Amino acid sequence: MNLIPDLDLLTDDIDAPKLTTDEAVGTRQVYLETYGCQMNVSDSEIVASVLRENGFGLTHDADHADVVLLNTCAIRENAEQKVRHRLSHFRAAKTKHGRDLKIGVLGCMAERLREKLLDQEKLVDLVVGPDAYRDLPRLLHETDETGQAAVNVLLSREETYADIAPVRYDTNGVSAFVSIMRGCDNMCAFCVVPFTRGRERSRPVTSILSEVSQLVEHGYKEVTVLGQNVNSYRVEHDGTAVDFAELLYRISLISPELRIRYSTSHPKDCSDDLLRVHAERHNVCNYIHLPVQHGNTDVLQRMRRTYTRDEYLDLIDRARTICPGISFSTDIIAGFCGETEDEHQDTLSLLEHVGYDHAYMFMYSERPDTYAARKYTDDVPEAIKKRRLTEIIQLQTGIARARNEAEIGQEHTVLVEGTSKRSDAQLYGRTDTNKVVVFDRKDFIKGDYVNVRITDCTSATLIGTPLGKTTLETEAGRLVVA
Ligand code: 5AD
Ligand code: SF4
Questions:
Q1: CATH at 88
Q2: Helix, strand or coil for residue 265?
Q3: CATH label of the domain that carries residue 276
Q4: Coil, strand or helix: which one is 283?
Q5: Does the residue 162 lie in any domain?
Q6: 455 located within any domain
Q7: From 3-7, 88-92, 229-233, 307-311, the region with the lowest mean pLDDT
Q8: Measured CA distances, 135 to 76, 423, 430, 469 (Å)
Q9: pLDDT score, position 93
Q10: Residue 158 is assigned to a structural domain of this protein
Q11: N or C: which end of the chain has fewer CB within 10 A?
Q12: What is the structure's pLDDT at 402?
């Protein structure tokens, strides 16, 4: 899962549909703030839907909200600290102004911190785990009635929210998230997700396909299919097993003009069938976020990642053979338990070998209940962790820049997502390979596919000249003819 720091679900700088006056009058207003991964953004859309269906209004204005909900992340300690600060802020606002404000913690921090948040710190009125969002209206009612905190942190083996139509607040009207599975059974030694989000379960095919079809009808041009471990998707459908490759193939048939991405995947579930879907379907993007976590086989074993360095590198080679030009991003952890200098060097050499276009790089942070917390010692000193992480970031920044420089002179089909942050005269969008491109606005609008010739770059962004509007099908046809 890619971490998006401090992503507010309801921010003013997005083209979100504004609330109508009718909604805002006479209803209790909820302010919802989202931390962590794309899955949490998607979950907040479910929460918004449940609340709206039950007569609540949604507001961008925390100062005038009746209910403040924080959808939280527990993946690293600093993510939790950020949420605690926000909670103290809202608690202070409530006390100072004597407001009848209800404060709730949703998502990954709920289960583990429920006792602390409720009893020791008395920070919250509501604690709701990731599988209990349908229960939110009842819990709000309960805390209103009793004046006591209300809690539901039960994890489910079935809940996929398949029948709930997400309210897409944080949307540019072009790209949307579609959640297809929840939970994780992998138990990587460092990771708290299996404890906060529970067991893996996949959403039925029909409800996924119908959600994507509706998005297409509403003009969306890109979906990112989401799950903690999306490529382990598996369901029985009409008497046959549908795996992730098959699901992706079926989604790709919905519209030739809909781009499809997914996040996040595990190397063990990246099958050749899946790679062939990337190769054969022009609208399944040539890009995989394929977290490796580390470059040394012994560390990978300690991390319980179930593959060796060589197996991972073979997978990258296979993907590049089946699907030439495919681009990769990854997640890396520096300073895991027992990591030696030589093992760290293996991460650096793997980064050079693979040539990722992008990486999310983290310092190891011990999480309660995990295998690593129970069995290993967090013994790499902080200063060494920091130094190793800096080396990793510096190396990867250079690799990303070199890969971007190699794009100069190339043409890409870019889906326009909006106006560039730097200038109103420029638009931005992404290539099939997930690289951000900035170019002159001309007459192009959000949702257009535009052919862009790359003329310049930084390590993070490509800069280009637009050549003209196009369609995905036209570009696919051109590739076949070539
Ligand atoms: N410490 C540091 N990074 C972690 N991640 C998961 N757990 C931890 C941890 N305890 C990273 C992994 C994962 C990404 C979402 O967060 O790289 O892929
Ligand atoms: Fe965590 Fe590993 Fe599951 Fe990813 S695959 S959510 S890192 S346990």
A1: 3.40.50.12160
A2: coil
A3: 3.80.30.20
A4: coil
A5: no
A6: yes
A7: 3-7
A8: 27, 44, 38, 46
A9: 84
A10: no
A11: C
A12: 97
362 in ligand 1 pocket by Cβ < 6 Å?
Answer: yes
Task: Judge contact between 294 and 303, C-beta under 8 A.
Answer: yes
pLDDT of the residue at 479: 61
The pLDDT value recorded for residue 297 is 98
User: What three-state secondary structure class fits 309?
Assistant: helix
Residues 328-345 have a mean pLDDT of: 98
Q: Structurally, how many domains does the chain consist of?
A: 3
Q: Within a domain: residue 159?
A: no
Q: Could you tell me if 338 and 215 lie in one domain? A: yes
Judge whether residue 194 has pLDDT over 80.
Answer: yes
Residue 19 has pLDDT above 80, yes or no: no
Which residue range is the domain that position 28 belongs to? 2-152
Taking the centre of ligand 2 as the mean of its atom positions, its distance from the CA of residue 187, in whole angstroms, is: 6
- Give 232 Cα–ligand 2 centroid separation in angstroms: 12
DSSP class of residue 369 equals T
Q: Are 109 and 183 within one domain?
A: no
The tens digit of pLDDT for each residue in 430-441 reads 999 999 999 999
Cα 83 to middle of ligand 1, angstroms:
18
Which ligand is nearest the CA of 73, by number? 1
Query: What residue's CA is closest to ligand 1, atom 13?
Result: 331
Other CB atoms within a 10 A radius of the CB of residue 216 amount to 14
| Nearest-10 Cα torsion for 380, 383, 389, 395 | -120
Read off the pLDDT of each residue in 139-144 and give the average, rounded to a whole number: 95
**Share above pLDDT 90 across residues of the chain, in percent, rounded to a whole number:** 83
> Is residue 178 classed as helix, strand or coil in its secondary structure?
strand
Residues 424 and 363 in one domain: no
The answer to whether residues 98 and 132 belong to one domain is yes
Task: Tell whether 130 and 219 lie within a shared domain.
Answer: no
Residues 200 and 341 in one domain: yes
User: Domain boundary at 405, 435, 464, which?
Assistant: 405
Among protein residues, the one whose CA lies closest to atom 2 of ligand 2: 188
The alpha carbon of 362 and the centre of ligand 1 are apart by a number of angstroms equal to 7
State whether residue 83 is helix, strand or coil: helix
Measured by CA distance, the residue closest to atom 6 of ligand 1 is 191
User: pLDDT by residue (tens digit) across 424-463?
Assistant: 999 999 999 999 999 999 999 999 999 999 999 998 999 9
